[in-house]
């Protein structure tokens, strides 16, 4: 059996934070008696990813998922435990041969120069990664065509829409054809059409090249559209590792009926929640019979809850044990 392309074993990472008191007297006190505390961001996390997998990392703000990505990409050094990529590469050593094989897109960090067109940044990356000119031109033409941003290559970044900037950030992470792609909140703030375009492109890329993709997102549509497997991080701990369906089955407490009707219901029956004009959800535990005339129902589906509902439940609680 081939070795995992990513191996994280009992990883731990803590950072030190300082508190600042208000006012001049507080600042004077802090000068000599600064108060500090240690925050455990990642606690005893083990994770193994095979080549070609698409893994979704889920967690609330501050749960530790972005820190975990920074450990895997070498941005942060691990405190204890072990992180290795490609069997023998230690990320924090930042060896050129390792950096050549990974691509990273962090939502809060831009590679694009604000006043320059995206092409200038991409040409710079071509030189950094020693990409042959012909290969660069062919691959860039493919990426911009697939993501529908070819006309914007020569437009200053400050004049691009958010969706166009996000797509060029993705192209920057892919320009050297990495084997592993790390995406942190790749679709934050962009419209549904751009999201769908990115989903289609990433699925095609994974299918055609067996590129391994590690994805974090608060948008559950990203996870449902792309991830073959999910790992849930809560308070620094990994509390689940499996499929989206398995996650819902494990934590769902309320069975739901999804019903689509021919016309909107007016008035809305008891125990029925309207999702959109003719789409409704019903708590199946509260029913003895359907509160809707069967002649008006176009389709009925039963499931054990939505991913959004499960994550809301998990992240509002203390970290449960796996």
Automatic annotation (TrEMBL):
Keyword check for Nucleotidyltransferase: no
Keyword Transport appears in the UniProt entry: yes
Organism: Levilactobacillus lanxiensis
Gene Ontology molecular function: ATP binding
A family per Pfam: ABC_tran
Source species taxonomy: Bacteria, Bacillati, Bacillota, Bacilli, Lactobacillales
Gene3D superfamilies cross-referenced by the UniProt entry: P-loop containing nucleotide triphosphate hydrolases
Name by which UniProt lists this protein: ATP-binding cassette domain-containing protein
Top-rank taxon: Bacteria
């Amino acid at each position: 059996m081939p070795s995992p392309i990513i191996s994280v074993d009992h990883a731990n990472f803590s950072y030190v934070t300082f508190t600042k008191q208000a006012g001049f007297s507080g600042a004077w006190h802090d000068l000599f008696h600064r108060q500090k505390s240690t925050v455990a961001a990642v606690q005893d996390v083990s994770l193994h990813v095979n080549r070609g997998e698409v893994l979704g990392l889920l967690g609330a703000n501050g749960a530790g998922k972005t820190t975990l990505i920074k450990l895997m990409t070498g941005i942060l050094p691990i405190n204890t435990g072990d992180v290795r990529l490609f069997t023998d590469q230690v990320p924090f050593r930042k060896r050129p041969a390792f950096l050549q094989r990974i691509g990273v897109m962090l939502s809060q960090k831009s590679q694009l120069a604000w006043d320059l067109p995206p092409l200038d940044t991409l040409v710079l990356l071509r030189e950094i990664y020693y990409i042959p000119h012909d290969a660069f031109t062919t691959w860039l033409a493919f990426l911009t065509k697939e993501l529908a941003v070819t006309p914007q290559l020569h437009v200053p970044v400050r004049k691009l829409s958010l969706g166009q900037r996000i797509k060029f950030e993705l192209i920057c992470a892919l320009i050297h054809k990495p084997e592993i792609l790390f995406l942190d909140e790749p679709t934050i703030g962009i419209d549904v059409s751009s999201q769908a375009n990115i989903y289609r492109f990433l699925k095609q890329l994974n299918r055609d090249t067996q590129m391994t993709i590690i994805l974090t997102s608060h948008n559950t549509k990203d996870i449902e559209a792309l991830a073959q497997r999910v790992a849930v991080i809560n308070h620094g701990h990994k509390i689940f590792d499996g499929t989206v369906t398995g996650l819902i089955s494990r934590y769902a407490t309320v069975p739901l009926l999804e019903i689509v009707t021919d016309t909107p219901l007016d008035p809305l029956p008891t125990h029925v929640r309207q999702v959109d004009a003719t789409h409704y959800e019903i708590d199946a535990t509260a029913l003895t019979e359907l509160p809707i005339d069967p002649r008006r129902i176009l389709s009925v589906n039963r499931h054990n809850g939505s991913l959004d509902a499960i994550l809301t439940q998990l992240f509002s609680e203390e970290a449960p044990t796996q």
